[in-house]
Design brief:
The complex is a heterotrimer of chains A (about 475), B (about 290) and C (about 300).
Chain A (H helix, E strand, L loop, with lengths): L1 H33 L6 E2 L5 H7 L7 E7 L6 H14 L2 E7 L2 H10 L6 E3 L8 H7 L21 H4 L21 E7 L1 E5 H7 L7 H13 L3 E3 L7 H22 L9 H15 L5 H4 L5 H9 L3 E6 L3 H4 L11 E4 L11 E10 L7 H10 L3 H9 L9 H4 L2 H7 L7 E3 L14 H7 L1 H6 L4 H17 L3
Parallel strand pairs in A: 2-3, 2-4, 7-8, 10-11
Antiparallel strand pairs in A: 1-3, 4-10, 5-10, 6-8, 6-9
Chain B lengths: L1 H31 L21 H7 L4 H32 L5 H11 L4 H21 L10 H11 L1 H12 L5 H8 L4 H12 L1 H17 L2 H6 L9 H9 L8 H31 L6
Helix pairs in contact in B: 2-13, 3-6, 3-7, 3-10, 4-7, 7-10, 8-9, 10-13, 12-13
Chain C lengths: L1 H34 L2 E2 L8 E2 L3 H6 L3 H34 L5 H13 L2 H12 L5 H9 L16 H26 L3 H9 L4 H12 L1 H26 L11 H11 L3 H25 L8
The chains are: A alpha/beta (about 475), B mainly alpha (about 290), C mainly alpha (about 300).
């Protein structure tokens, strides 16, 4: 049964690529023509009367919205801001930049805070994490019970289940929400489905099958695995924690529970990553940095490696790259630990938050609530960004529908991340857990050294838990 | 005789190898700037398939490198003029007069050589932030951040220790008799300095200008910190960093290398024009310590 | 009268420079020392005074020691190689009568005028394990099927790759500097040495080096200061401290702690250590290399 699903996914991914390329090409063009790295626009309110109808909110408020520019482009942000102004009368001053941290980080130090920020955790500059550690985020739990502007429903009715329950939105584990979930994307392993057809290989559903495939590929001089940078192991590692011990184990591990890294589940996770690192293309660590990671992704396109962990954006990222004849993107969840166990795909999503020092918090909250309106979600979806709204994935067209159906097809969703702590000097847990994979691949560190440093840092972080 | 020419061949080989090690990579950047985006996924040493000048048009126009270049020219020029106005009199006095506190000031400037700009840039930034808050409380317009003239002032100030060190090294070598003659003619301290001593220091001044031109032109850490407004002015290296930002968005390699060439070209041209003077200036003192 | 006009003149000449130096260098440095005693994340208004806590933590931070080790290796290795190459090439270009002397001098200086961004782009292409220039050349001599050398991926090699880029950048600068001081040695000194039968190599060690010794001492201090700085900018652009922290140096680790690990005070403590370290090292080098200047 699972194999059939996998085959189905392979087939659908083929279609995904064709249409996906077209839409990303258009998107890219907008970025280049817009060319400025940042667009600041004072959206004007075209329909003042309509605005007054919609809400009785003061119309003379201007909020400052700062959003990271990613592969989705900036156009959707401009449109959403305009639509928001038309709906509520609240004016929006939009700032977008590819490295938003550099722009707003400096302004925030200077005491000039945006009212709404769209910037995910897990980025190298870690600005969002810094504000979590510094208690610099506004509690937005009340947004969940607000009515979506222009609609009848409450925000909490619209956000899909589970999205506001992990530490990615409730960083302090106290049931309060500080970050709103945005644009989600299933993460998993990407591969060239044409190569699998040509060789007559099937996509492995368990890790044991994965290792068998690794040997077969080795005989053909193809590596089993490659990764863009070690940072991409976050989604991979989290999904693997779920596979090994379910959500309860995941919660314990991400809260640094004492002795958790010695548990049999953790041992399984470490063993799989160690084994996988032995099957990894040897040149990967050389290019596993922000300047050269495209070379690692190229390995999949050139049929030099079979799988890489990644997200949907990779298709747009590699659209200009040359590729093997007949190449077509395939996508699968992680293989299961054993036959009959659950396979997981990590649900990566971005976050939107309001700085505690923002000036127009009420208007800012309206803006956050508006993100879950059908109107806003539609604008985002047109650019390829999918909002975590209940039932929304069913309305998606063509490529995205198929892509997001991975969870309907058997894979379970993994959500969450390591819990926030007070800053601990000299400890960067992402580097300790994920960064060390580079050393496992090159053989500079052993599995035991890796585990020991994880345990040591885990102890320090437990003491600093919020 | 035979032995000597054999040795010469060896020396030439060494020199030529080193020259190739420098020329080939630099030439490669020029070559890469003419490639189309898809060519970057092939062997990097392959010649470009054609002259894809669009890279330069994109970099100059839509990536604003033209405007950034003007900013860089202004910042560099203002900083150098300021630096010379400040450092010349100071190093002259510090090296040729005896007075109280001289030793202390000299030692402080020497210690300044050890202060790394890369780590004082944030304290400087925080200082400006406080300055802006103060101006705001006085009801005045912001002045310090996003101001290329303030950036030039910071460049000039942080270059003072090295420049004073360099110029003092030259000034101490000038015989006292020049000034004594001028004073006898009734020339003031100021006139003597400007009309007698400074012209003699021309080669050193040229060295100072060239060194500082290079460091100001290529500097980006201070610039990126002090020019915070995304719509405001940027200098060329900061613009280049923007071109290189490729997080989750497809990279524009051609444009980036065209940007690299735009940053590199002025320094290359200037260097080749004044390279003779540079060596001359170094020979006349200063760096001899 | 004369006395006071001199004071005014001195004051007007020195005060502006000194004031700016005070505001933009001394005070920020003082602030680094001050902030190293606080725990502060960088954004919130609450700064907690923690005394020497940051320094105590630093003394137990293995990653800091790795960056320490890398920095010292780069200072020593890069300085030694750059110094030797610069000195030898300077001697060749000043002492030998060669065609194209000027050309070589101009070319060798070029890397020094390039932006670090350009240098790192160049070296990423040269050191690429698959189709980089260096491996392509080495493959002529090696077995075609041998494992390529991972210049930027192998943690035992990557620090040498960084050193290579740094040397490439610096040789020309110091060479021109040494050439300048060698040219000021009068030709007659060499002539009389030649008459006494001293060979070129003997002259190099017993005449050239002692005669430009003060210059060499000065450049040694430059080596220390500039290598701390340069290793940071090159590492930042080429490897980002990776793979797995193996090329982390002083300042890159400081930046990481201060800005991405929300430990501004801790980062500043690293800054203090770097400052004191470079100061002390220069002092030691200066003491050890002290010689009586040779009078001609």
């Amino acid at each position: 049964m699972k194999k059939i699903i996998a085959m189905l996914l392979v087939g659908t991914m083929g279609i995904t690529t064709l249409t996906g390329c077209g839409s990303t090409a258009a998107k890219e063009k907008e970025v280049t023509e817009g060319a400025t790295d940042e667009i600041k626009e004072e959206a004007q309110s075209p329909a003042e009367e309509k605005a007054e109808e919609a809400t009785d909110e003061a119309t003379d408020v201007t909020i400052k919205v700062a959003a990271i520019e990613t592969a989705y482009g900036v156009d959707m942000w401009t449109k959403v801001c305009e639509a928001f102004t038309a709906k509520t009368g609240i004016k929006v001053e939009l700032t977008t930049d590819k490295s938003l941290e550099d722009v707003i980080g400096a302004q925030m130090k200077a005491g000039d805070y945006p009212d709404v920020v769209h910037l995910a955790t897990g980025r190298p500059a870690a600005l969002t994490e810094t504000l979590i550690k510094e208690n610099g985020l506004e509690d937005i739990t009340d947004v969940l019970s607000m009515t979506v502007p222009g609609e009848e429903k409450n925000v909490s009715d619209k956000i899909a289940g589970g999205f506001t329950e992990s530490s990615l939105t409730n960083p302090y584990n106290d049931g309060r929400t500080y970050m709103a979930p945005m644009f989600y994307s299933p993460c998993g392993l990407f591969y060239n489905s044409a190569l699998f057809e040509e060789k007559g290989w099937s996509v492995p559903v368990t890790w044991d099958e994965m290792w068998e495939l690794g040997e077969k590929a080795k005989a053909e001089n193809i590596a089993l695995f490659a990764y863009p940078t070690a940072g991409y192991f976050d989604a991979f590692f989290y999904a693997l924690l779920y596979e090994a011990g379910g959500s309860e184990f995941f919660a314990k591990a991400t809260n640094y529970e004492e002795g958790i890294w010695d548990s049999p589940e953790a041992v399984q996770v470490f063993d799989i990553i160690e084994k996988l690192s032995a099957y990894t293309e040897k040149s990967v660590p050389s290019n596993a940095n922000n300047d050269n990671y495209l070379k690692n992704q190229q390995l999949i396109l050139d049929n030099k490696a079979l799988f890489m962990p990644n997200g949907t954006w990779v298709i747009g990222e590699m659209k200009d790259a040359p590729r093997a004849d007949g190449f077509s993107w395939g996508f699968t969840a992680l293989p299961a630990i054993a036959d009959g166990k659950d396979a997981y795909s990590y649900t990566w999503f971005e976050q939107m938050w309001i700085p505690a020092a923002a000036e127009n918090k009420d208007a800012a909250k309206q803006f956050v609530a508006y993100m879950y309106s059908d109107e806003a979600a539609g604008i985002f979806a047109a650019a390829g960004a999918v909002q975590p709204i209940t039932g929304f994935a069913d309305q998606l067209e063509g490529d995205n529908k198929l892509f997001y159906s991975i969870y309907d097809n058997g894979a379970k969703a993994a959500l969450g991340s390591f819990a926030a702590t007070d800053p601990v000097e000299g400890v960067n847990f992402a580097d300790t857990v994920f960064g060390t994979v580079n050393s496992l691949v090159s053989g500079d560190k052993t599995k035991q050294e890796w585990i020991d440093s994880i345990k040591k840092d885990s102890d320090l972080l437990r003491a600093a838990l919020k | 005789m035979k032995k000597k020419s054999g040795k010469h061949v060896l020396i030439y080989c060494l020199l030529i190898i080193l020259a190739i090690l420098i020329i080939v990579p630099v030439g490669w950047v020029f070559m890469a700037s003419l490639k189309q985006n898809h060519e970057f996924y092939e062997t990097p040493w392959k010649l470009p398939s054609g002259f894809y000048v669009q890279n330069f048009i994109d970099a100059w126009g839509s990536a604003h490198m033209g405007q950034y270049m003007l900013n860089s020219v202004i910042v560099t020029a203002v900083a150098i003029v300021l630096l010379l106005m400040l450092a010349l009199p100071a190093s002259y006095c510090l090296s040729r007069f005896q007075f109280k506190m001289k030793k202390v000031i000299q030692i402080l400037f020497m210690a300044g050589l050890f202060i790394n700009v890369n780590y004082i840039v944030v304290p400087i930034f925080l200082m400006f932030v406080d300055g802006e808050k103060w101006l705001k409380s006085m009801g005045l317009e912001p002045l310090f951040l996003n101001n290329i003239f303030i950036l030039a002032l910071v460049y000039a100030s942080t270059a003072l220790p090295f420049t004073i060190y360099l110029l003092s090294g030259y000034f101490v070598t000038i015989p006292k008799t020049y000034e004594e003659a001028a004073y006898i003619d009734g020339s003031s301290y100021f006139r003597t300095m400007v009309e007698v001593i400074f012209p003699m220091a021309r080669p050193s001044i040229i060295t100072v200008i060239l060194f500082n031109f290079l460091s100001f032109w290529n500097e980006y850490i201070i610039a990126i910190t002090l020019l915070t407004d995304p719509d405001g002015s940027k200098t060329l290296p900061v613009g280049l960093m923007n071109l290189m930002k490729a997080q989750n968005a497809s990279a524009q390699y051609g444009r980036m290398y065209a940007g690299l060439v735009l940053v590199m070209l002025p320094t290359l041209v200037l260097y080749i024009l004044v390279q003779k003077k540079l060596t001359q200036g170094m020979m006349l003192g200063g760096l001899k310590g | 009268m004369k006395k006071s006009s001199k004071s005014i003149f001195l004051f007007l000449c020195i005060a502006p420079s000194f004031l700016l130096f005070l505001v933009f260098m001394i005070i920020p440095t003082f602030n680094i020392f001050r902030m190293s005693l606080y725990k502060w994340g960088g954004y919130s208004p609450d700064k907690t005074f923690v005394g020497l806590d940051n320094f105590i933590k630093l003394s137990k931070d293995m990653k800091f020691f790795q960056s320490f080790e890398n920095t010292i290796f780069l200072i020593v290795a890069v300085s030694l190689v750059t110094f030797t190459m610069a000195l030898v090439f300077a001697a060749i270009l000043t002492r030998e009568n060669l065609i194209g002397q000027n050309f070589f001098r101009v070319v060798f200086y070029i890397p020094n005028i390039l932006s670090i961004v350009i240098i790192s782009a160049i070296f990423s292409a040269i050191l690429d394990s698959k189709n980089g220039l260096l491996n392509s050349i080495l493959n002529i001599f090696r077995d075609k099927n041998a494992e390529p050398i991972y210049w930027l991926g192998d943690q035992k090699i990557v620090i040498y790759s960084i050193a290579m880029a740094m040397i490439w950048q610096a040789v020309g600068y110091y060479m021109v500097m040494y050439m300048a001081s060698m040219a000021s040695v009068p030709e007659s000194v060499y002539e009389s040495a030649s008459l006494e039968g001293a060979g070129k190599i003997h002259q190099f060690f017993h005449l050239t080096i002692p005669l430009i010794w003060t210059n060499i001492r000065t450049t040694l201090t430059f080596f220390i200061i500039s290598n701390i700085n340069l290793s940071f900018t090159i590492v930042k652009a080429m490897t980002g401290g990776g793979p797995d922290g193996s090329t982390e140096v002083f300042l890159s680790y400081m930046y990481k702690q201060a800005y991405t690990n929300s430990s501004y005070g801790y980062g500043m403590a690293i800054g203090v250590v770097v400052f004191l370290f470079s100061f002390a090292l220069s002092g030691i080098v200066s003491l050890v290399t002290k010689r009586e200047p040779i009078e001609l």
